[in-house]
Write a structure and sequence with these properties.
alpha/beta; Spore Coat Polysaccharide Biosynthesis Protein SpsA, Chain A; Rossmann fold; 2 domains; six-stranded mixed beta sheet; 22 strands; about 25% strand
């Protein structure tokens, strides 16, 4: 089990504001990327309470509209993707560590063209913004102004234009500027406030697809899931390749969500779960199944079904042996992207072992006992697609009293990339409409909200 265990109550009054780059002139792509980033903004609700998501046409307009309502606003440009929801906790840590800040963003040095505060991911302290007379962010129009002379770190995050930090030398001089955010930098440093450059931990948990670059070609590549001439941005190419490749045949050997089946003390004739991790063992820890009940393990991926069936039919309790004797070991994954092989030269990967250890601990010393119960319980393995072709599963459930776990199937990165948030919501609503009243659904809706009613 690998889950984000820390959460926070939003006592610092932070909100998310989604806005389009003023350089993005393709309206359809703007709408698509706004929808895309909205999904990831909702995903941040996994670790927070009372987190508002609002919209604006620009950073300046967002500050004018929301500065009196929130003390901190995280501006996410349409086209931002969040890899890890715990990024919000890292941002909260940064706020508490550096209260005397005006903004946190990506700082770029352009030599004779001065500095830039890139718009893609900008945190603003609205109290400090108001204290220094609500400065404008600063646009692209070239001009020469009397600006602070900046001292910067010798080190860079990458290349030679991404300083770890900048600060005021106490001097001012006429300097050319032609990049966004220049006015925030100047007014903040002049007033003794800090401009924070995002640290590597935060940078690693998000990305940006630069929809203002090659917008026409990027839009058509995205819609057609085919790389069109003109798309050269690395991030855009990576996203399109993900969509072309699809979800593949990976098998999730560890759960990335909590394993409690949320039966709330009730028993069911059928408990249906996707073929991933070891959540099915909680059916026994939580006493969720009637004495003559059965478990349905379902998935679109036959190899995922084969993995759980391999565990079900085996007599082994040794995870290494189970991995080594599985026909499709190379398909086993445990969390996120770019997992290394689960086993190399007979040694299980450290990341997988860490997740498996937490899984075993969750079952409080009874892992093998519950595995025995699973192996002696009637189990059916059903290949189905919960998004497009699910009637064989629903026919199997029929009118039985059923606890149906949908996990995050309707809120995966791939599904949102393929159909968008609105398209995923319509498919989810259609699926829910076909369920019998005796079926209780547990899992995430397309916005990532966990349903456990």
């Amino acid at each position: 089990m690998i889950v984000v265990e820390r959460t926070f109550v939003n006592d610092i009054n932070i909100a998310i504001c989604i806005f389009p780059s003023n350089m993005l002139k393709h309206r359809q792509l703007e709408e698509l990327m706004t929808d895309y980033t909205t999904f990831y903004a909702h995903r941040l609700e996994e670790v927070s309470f009372n987190l508002d998501i609002v919209y604006a046409s620009s950073i300046d307009q967002g500050l004018e509209q929301y500065a009196d309502r929130y003390k901190h606003i995280l501006f996410m440009a349409a086209g931002v993707r969040i890899y890890d929801s715990s990024i919000l906790l890292d941002i909260v840590d940064e706020i508490k560590r550096t209260p005397n800040y005006l903004a946190a963003a990506h700082i770029l040095e352009w030599k004779e063209k001065w500095y830039e505060l890139h718009h893609q991911f900008v945190l603003v302290n609205t109290d400090n913004w108001k204290k220094i007379d609500k400065p404008k962010y600063g646009g692209w129009a070239p001009a020469v102004d009397d600006l602070v002379v900046i001292e910067r770190s010798a080190e860079n995050f990458h290349d030679d234009y991404t300083p770890l930090w900048i600060k005021d030398t106490g001097n001012r001089s006429p300097q050319l500027h032609c990049k966004q955010g220049w006015n925030f930098i100047d007014k903040a440093l002049k007033a003794g406030l800090e401009i924070i450059n995002w640290n590597q931990k935060i940078r690693s948990k998000r990305t940006y697809y630069y929809p203002e670059t090659s917008s026409f070609a990027f839009y058509h590549s995205y819609k057609n899931r085919k790389i069109m001439p003109g798309v050269t941005n690395f991030n855009q190419l990576r996203l399109i390749n993900e969509m072309v490749t699809g979800v593949g045949h990976q098998v999730w050997a560890i759960n990335s969500e909590h394993m409690y089946v949320h039966n709330r003390g009730r028993q069911y004739e059928i408990v249906a779960l996707p073929a991933s991790g070891f959540k099915y063992l909680d059916v026994f820890q939580s006493n969720a199944l009637t004495s003559n009940g059965e478990i349905l393990i379902y998935d679109y991926n036959q190899i995922s079904l084969d993995w759980i069936k391999h565990i079900y039919t085996s007599s082994s309790y040794d995870i290494k042996e189970l991995v080594e004797t599985f026909e499709h070991t190379s398909n086993l994954k445990w969390f996120g992207q770019d997992n290394p092989p689960i086993i190399t030269d007979g040694v299980l990967a450290a990341g997988f072992l860490e997740g498996f250890k937490k899984t075993v601990e969750y079952y409080q010393g009874n892992f093998n006992h519950y595995l025995n119960q699973f192996r002696s319980t009637p189990v059916k393995f059903i290949r189905t697609d919960l998004v497009q072709d699910y009637f064989n599963l629903l026919n199997e459930i029929a009118d039985s009293k059923c606890l149906l776990h949908i996990s995050n199937i309707f809120s995966t990165d791939f599904l949102i990339g393929l159909y968008g948030l609105k398209g995923s919501q319509s498919r989810y609503d259609k699926f829910i409409s076909f369920l019998h009243p005796n079926t209780r659904v547990i899992g995430h809706n397309p916005k990532g909200k966990f349903l456990n009613d």
